[in-house]
Design goal:
There is one protein chain. This protein has about 300 residues and is an all-alpha fold. The chain has one domain. It is about 75% helix and about 0% strand.
């Protein structure tokens, strides 16, 4: 039951992420919302709400006890800056320069990065299936970004760079959160990580520097969805799933997000998508399915994968 619950959480969170990314694109392109402002605002509000929920529960003391140990506090700050803030900012920047579909697909190179990292750390054996996975991911990205033409990219270079950085940040975020989750509730870890990320970015773009009267009712609805569903619930569900699934399983099941992002971007926002880009998308989704439904993993390997991972 815990495993099924974990799978349901990560899939739901991924869907929220996919729709939230598309709604963010709408805010950037139609309403001129600044990327820095949106990232700052969504992190601060979502983080505050998550910590409030934790404080109203039985384990309210965890909200403050997480800061009592120096080692834990330092790790939480690193997760907030290099994990939470990095994932949020790079992803939103990629959407701003390109679109939600491409940004999401590039972000979900994270499973391949995790596989490579685990192999280099000798915590997993590189199999033929892993090699096929990497090939599908790289081939899919090539088609996605070039639409089959070597002479030029069909996606702006800044969108590609930010998208790849987003994948690196998501891989780091997924692996680095393990030890903290073994000690504290996911609400506490995600909430504080968001607060840390939001506060740090506030020095660049304070959240109150915006003309709220210029926003329409529709814009406010998009903004509320992005903050509550595309940020707060998405990250909470994703990281909570790590308590019953391995980092590799969570990152793989979470990649249902690209499918949602691509479909919504193409059919709702009417973004152009070439034939070869659809083939590239199919390759990446095929990579996801190939890994997510690997039933041949031994119980010993699964147990090893669930151990907290340390990135030094």
């Amino acid at each position: 039951m815990n495993r099924r619950k974990g799978m349901l959480l990560v899939i739901t969170g991924a869907l929220f992420w996919g729709v939230g990314g598309t709604a963010s694109q709408k805010l950037f392109q139609q309403y001129g919302i600044d990327v820095n402002w949106l990232v700052t605002t969504r992190l601060l509000i979502a983080g505050f709400l998550l910590l409030t929920i934790q404080f109203l529960r039985k384990d309210r003391l965890q909200v403050f006890s997480v800061w009592k140990k120096k080692k834990t506090a330092v790790r939480l700050v690193i997760l907030g800056l290099l994990g939470m803030l990095a994932v949020q900012y790079t992803y939103m920047a990629s959407i701003n320069h390109g679109n939600a579909a491409v940004a999401t697909l590039l972000q979900y190179l994270a499973p391949v990065m995790i596989i490579i990292y685990l192999h280099l750390r000798k915590q997993a054996v590189l199999t033929q299936k892993d090699l096929l996975t990497v090939s599908l991911a790289l081939g899919g990205c090539f088609l996605l970004l070039t639409n089959g033409s070597i002479s030029g990219l069909s996606v702006p270079t800044p969108a590609i760079v930010w998208g790849i950085l987003s994948g690196i940040a998501l891989a780091f975020y997924t692996l680095y959160a393990g030890p903290l989750l073994s000690q504290y509730d996911s609400l506490v870890i995600v909430g504080w990580a968001m607060i840390i990320g939001g506060l740090s970015l506030s020095f660049i773009h304070p959240p109150w520097q915006i003309d709220f009267t210029a926003l329409t009712t529709e814009a406010y609805l998009y903004l509320i969805f992005v903050i509550l569903f595309g940020t707060m619930l998405a990250f909470w569900f994703y990281i909570k799933s790590l308590q019953s699934l391995s980092p590799k399983e969570t990152s793989l099941l979470g990649t249902i997000e690209p499918l949602a992002a691509v479909l919504i971007t193409v059919f709702w926002l009417k973004e152009p998508f070439g034939v070869f880009q659809w083939v590239g998308t199919a390759c990446i989704i095929g990579m996801i399915v190939l890994l997510a439904y690997n039933k041949k993993t031994s119980s010993a390997k699964a147990k090893q994968a669930k151990k907290p991972l340390k990135i030094s």
